[in-house]
Amino acid sequence: MRIVIDMQGAQTESRFRGIGRYTLEFARAVARNRGEHEVFLVFNGSLKESLREIQNSFIGLLSKTSFKVWHPPAPIRAFEKGNEQRRLISEKLYKAFIRTLQPDVIHITSLFEGYIDDALTCVTTYDDTITTVTLYDLIPLLNPKQYFDDSPLYRDFYTEKVSQLKAADSLFAISSFSRNEAIHHLNLPEKQVVNVSTGISDLNRVYGTEPPEVFARWLRNLGVERGFVLYSGGSDERKNLVRLVMAYANLPQSVRTQNSLVLAGKMRDEDKQLLLQTAKNANLEKNGLLFTGYVSDDQLSFLYENCCLYVFPSWHEGFGLPPLEAMKHGAPVIASNATSIPEVIGLESALFNPFDIASISAKLLEGLSNEAFREELRTHAALQVEKFTWDRVAIKAAATWTQLLQAKVHDHNASHSDLTQIASNAKQTDFDLLQEIKPVAQHLSKDDLLKVSFSLDLIAIATQSKQLFVDVSELVARDAKTGVQRVTRSILKQLIDNPPAGYLVKPVYATTESFGYLYTSKFNDLDERSDCSNDDTPISYRAGDVFLGLDLQHHTTRVQAPFLHGICDYGVDVRFIVYDLLPIQFPEFWPPEHRVSDVHEDWLSVISGFDGVICISSSVACDFTEWLNNRDTTRRNLLKVDWFHLGGDIDNSMASQGLPSNAQEICLQLKESHTFLMVGTLEPRKGHEQALNAFEILWAGGVQANLVIVGKKGWLTDSLAERIRNHSRLGKSLFWLESISDEFLNSIYAASSCLLAASYGEGFGLPLIEAAHHQIPIIARDIPVFREVAGEHAYYFDSKDPGGLAACVRDWLALFQDNKHPTSKDLPWISWKESAQHLVSVLIEEPRTLIS
């Protein structure tokens, strides 16, 4: 079956409370135990703040294609007047979007959202779909004085939600207590409410932790310089924190001087001030009451593991997850004996009366002064937590969904064996709902209409094929015909010729003057299936699409970073190709006034904020990982790091064509003597100067050999270029071929005796593969990436002086004469088609490395 889970409970302010944690862990457990079922997670695009963090928590469980984002025309929060029309439209948009996913099951993790946030949840009832809702509690309904007396608007909001709650096919209660509460107070049949219970997980699972001394220092900065009693959670009235502070203040002074009362979690300022005034009235010492504010999972784990005692005084809970978490982390826990909490704690001696300050104080004193009691609490906790696992919750939920779906099919007079067919036939996207929007939309502002249009666009493209956006911004602006552009052209051709299954390949581009990427039909002649009608129009995107930063254009990427973050948040998988880190590793090889190393490092920092990088060699992947790990920065994402190798068949690389009039004459001249070929832009890193000096030594010694340089003039080479152009051997045994076509380069390879790869650093070393394709030998500088690419099939040198390289060439010539030189004949190389296939596989499959 296809299970759709609404994740807004983890996006709103509820994310700071138990509801947010329950939503996240429930969805993770369902994904982990899905078996043959499909699972989709639906997110609200107006609640972006936590979107990336939530999605990252599913890495290894679900792919990005499982993340679906809809977008209401915010603001729609119910407590603000003037949002009524937008909220009504949002409900229709939500229903329409859900229908495009063709669900068998819709599960709403938190129905009572949208009063103070731009969330919209509603129970949808369809003949072919099961709708279930997590039931945490009915606290406002059962305590109207505290929740409704001062807010009739909230009363109306809550009452409407309760009516929707009753309409669900099933309620998933988080405890036996909350189940019984719903059956009794909502007058529901017992079979409509199922206790799926709650699980507990290790908070330290997220992204690793800082060293303990970091947390200890953080605690000292808060003012905690002794033992402490801990509470964690919210601060609303039912949490009973006023009585807790008063009970703590009633402890003997000798006990209080050894401890502080620490209240952890995000709390309203007015609640905090009330508690501080309560402490002051009770004459509690300085630092006797301390607040942490919002805490991360790592910080909360540290608090649990280091408190002397954990206390949970609430007088009404649907479950009570914080004390169970504390027990999981080994804390001695005492708690209220009210509502569901005894079910969670499971030990009567650990409980107190939450309405009796003396009872709370007595249990606090026992917990702080009786080590045997604390040990009893710890021992019991270790056994109690084993009763609550998220996997059990997910398995119970899946079993209930299956039963409900089978019953619904049976009600339609179908047999169990017809279940899949019935579900398939019944799934028709319900766009009739959208027609209902038109009358309401007439009263919206222009800005609101644009928001609705955007939402409709997301719904419309949800039914289309996925897209693979290939960034060719530099290629569209200018084709240098060397280096990165050769790779871009080659990979793009193969992706268009052999698109990944289920994807439409779309070349796109951007500029530094615009916002967002545009489609381009510049390369439509490569594929007759391409649709050029959307040329130069903004891209339409959806969750499951992939953006591949294939081209290298530092400034454009940095300018477009906000746009890319936006589509990333909507579920587009954004990855970039990293060709090398050479400007950072060898800054001396670039003009200092251009600050190339700074520009490249800024670019790497930007692309590290997306989903992943794919390097063109394992060596570059290692360099990138080392660079990233050495940076003092905090990223909000888990980064996928992978690599692939480039192809070597120039004729299948969208090769440029054209031969000069003297091409045949040059090739014949090269074949008359040993010809050593260097391919690459004339720049200091490539080692051209050392090579020219070495060959001048060889020529002076009577060695008959040609040196051929193929590549345009680059930077910091004015004197070298002038020296070559005025060289006495130019056109005789020294050749410089600038900006030649791929067709002519193929001929030069065929006429050469050996490739000389003298670069001090490379990302891959494509000429080595091209040489192997032509089966000509290789002399290469001994650097890691050349070893990775050529292995034992090249002759290596490590000297940086001309004499050393000249001696290397002489030695190679001697081996060549005796046919004992390493050959590239058996060097393993792949075609551009295979290279593109490898690239696609790492785009779709799990990465080799994850960096937090």
Describe the protein in words.
The protein has 852 residues and is an alpha/beta fold. The chain contains 36 helices and 27 strands. The strands form four sheets. It has an eight-stranded mixed sheet with strand order 16-15-14-17-18-19-20-27. The protein has a seven-stranded parallel sheet with strand order 3-2-1-4-5-6-7, sandwiched between helices. Helix 7 (176-185) links the parallel strand 6 and strand 7 (193-195). Helix 9 (241-249) runs parallel beside helix 11, helix 9 crosses helix 15 and helix 29 packs parallel to helix 32. The longest helix is centred in the middle third of the chain and has 22 residues, at 390-411. The radius of gyration is 34 Å and the shape is elongated.
Percent in strands: 5-15%
Radius of gyration: 34 Å
Fourth-tier CATH superfamily name of the largest domain: Glycogen Phosphorylase B
Q: How does CATH name the architecture of the largest domain? A: 3-Layer(aba) Sandwich
Number of helices: 36
How are the strands of the largest sheet arranged? 16-15-14-17-18-19-20-27
- How many distinct folded domains? 4
Please mark out the parts with pLDDT under 50 across 5 or more consecutive residues, or reply none: 413-431, 527-533
Give a short account of the largest sheet.
Answer: 8 strands, mixed
Give me the count of strands: 27
- Shape assignment: elongated
Average pLDDT metric: 88
CATH topology annotation of the largest domain: Rossmann fold
User: Level of helix content?
Assistant: 40-55%
Distance between the termini: 33 Å
Can you identify the CATH class of the largest domain?
Alpha Beta
- Helix/strand/pairing class, anyone? alpha/beta
